[in-house]
């Protein structure tokens, strides 16, 4: 009798522990989000990465080339500390300082020495000691612990900063940069912030997105004048954004859709403050729009809005900031080509804008002009 009771006791305890372990796993929350051109990424607290949206080049990393309307787990990837989405590819930084890439690779943007696209992550063997990653176009950027910047991929406008306009299939060191603390990549240009607070830029400059007062492409980074107190940098497709320590945002570059937020559609080749905006704590640039997060947890948006990427329940472009509807308690945000993501303090992800390939993750392919919750897994 006692033996049977003991056995039952063991079975009950084992079952409870099994349930608890399942609860612990399922309780892992989202810590980071990143938009690619037409896909989305999320990093969970358990170190796993999840992806959804366009997958024609394997940028979701699930071993297929099938679009996904809800999140799927990136295969064979654990202990991830940071994620970044490019227009056709994806990147992950592990806690051990190694970099992993997957997706489109015809310009060498995966950095594995080939031009073969991959639908599962590949390890960048020649890179270690990496502290930050960035991508938005078809080139990739990493920051090493020694303050140097390394790049690879498309280089048709000098966006790799190595003094050439030659695509690179493996990492090359960006010239003229040292003591860098943060990096950002745009469609065809790049930004870096030094420890002394100076901002450096390089790449395509047709629309003034480098910010040096010219429209001359730069294959070697140039310092930008008139900027101080910058604590955040970000790039859109063809525009640039910085956040100052007083909560003010400055922008420059292409402005056809009002993405600079200065109430005009005139481009600028030097930084200019966004109209009537303060108390900002985070910034993000999309293909033709811009998002900012205020200290109160609200999100504001401006620029192109045809599929609803501003989240203001309209399809009208805006040249000044507008409040994203039905969204509060936000802790971080990200912009894609024409879609947007926000992470709330409760760990839920909200998305809006273009959804042709399922990049909003709500189980549909319907565009949304106001935030909808991404289906969780």
From TrEMBL:
UniProt keyword list: Repeat
Residues covered by the RCC1-like domain: 28-175, 177-341
Coiled coil: none
PROSITE patterns xref list: RCC1_2 (PS00626), RCC1_3 (PS50012)
Keyword Repeat: yes
SUPFAM superfamilies referenced in this protein's UniProt entry, alphabetically: RCC1/BLIP-II (SSF50985)
Domain of life per record: Bacteria
Keyword Repeat: yes
PANTHER family named in the record: BTK-BINDING PROTEIN-RELATED (PTHR22872)
Protein name: RCC1 repeat-and reductase domain-containing protein
Source organism per UniProt: Candidatus Brocadia carolinensis
């Amino acid at each position: 009798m006692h033996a049977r009771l003991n056995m039952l006791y063991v079975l009950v305890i084992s079952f409870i522990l099994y349930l608890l372990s399942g609860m612990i796993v399922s309780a892992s929350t989202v810590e980071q989000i990143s938009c690619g051109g037409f896909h989305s990424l999320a990093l969970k607290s358990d170190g796993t990465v999840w992806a959804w949206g366009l997958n024609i080049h394997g940028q979701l990393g699930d071993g297929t080339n099938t679009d996904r309307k809800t999140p799927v787990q990136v295969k064979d990837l654990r202990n991830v500390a940071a994620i970044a989405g490019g227009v056709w590819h994806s990147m992950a930084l592990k806690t051990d300082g190694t970099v992993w890439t997957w997706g489109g690779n015809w310009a060498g943007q995966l950095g594995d020495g080939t031009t073969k696209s991959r639908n599962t992550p590949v390890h960048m063997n020649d890179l270690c000691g990496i502290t930050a990653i960035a991508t938005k176009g078809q080139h990739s950027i990493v920051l090493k612990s020694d303050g140097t910047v390394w790049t690879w991929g498309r280089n048709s406008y000098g966006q790799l900063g190595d003094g050439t306009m030659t695509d690179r299939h493996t990492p090359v060191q960006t010239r003229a940069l040292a003591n860098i603390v943060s990096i950002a990549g745009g469609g065809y240009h790049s930004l870096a912030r030094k420890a002394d607070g100076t901002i450096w830029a390089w790449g395509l400059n047709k629309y003034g997105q480098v910010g040096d007062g010219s429209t001359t492409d730069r294959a070697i980074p140039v310092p930008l004048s008139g900027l101080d107190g910058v604590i955040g940098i970000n790039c859109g497709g063809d525009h640039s954004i910085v956040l100052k320590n007083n909560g003010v945002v400055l922008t420059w570059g292409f402005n056809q859709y009002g993405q600079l937020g200065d109430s005009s559609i005139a481009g600028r080749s030097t930084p200019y403050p966004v109209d009537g905006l303060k108390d900002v704590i985070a910034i993000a640039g999309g293909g033709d729009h811009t998002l900012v997060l205020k200290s109160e947890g609200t999100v504001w948006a401006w620029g192109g809005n045809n599929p609803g990427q501003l989240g203001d329940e309209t399809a009208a472009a805006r040249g000044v900031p507008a409040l994203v509807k039905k969204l509060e308690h936000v802790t971080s945000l990200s912009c894609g080509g024409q879609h947007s993501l926000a992470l709330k303090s409760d760990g839920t992800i909200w998305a809006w804008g273009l959804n042709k390939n399922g990049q909003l993750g709500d189980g549909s392919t319907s565009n949304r002009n106001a935030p909808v919750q991404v289906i969780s897994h």
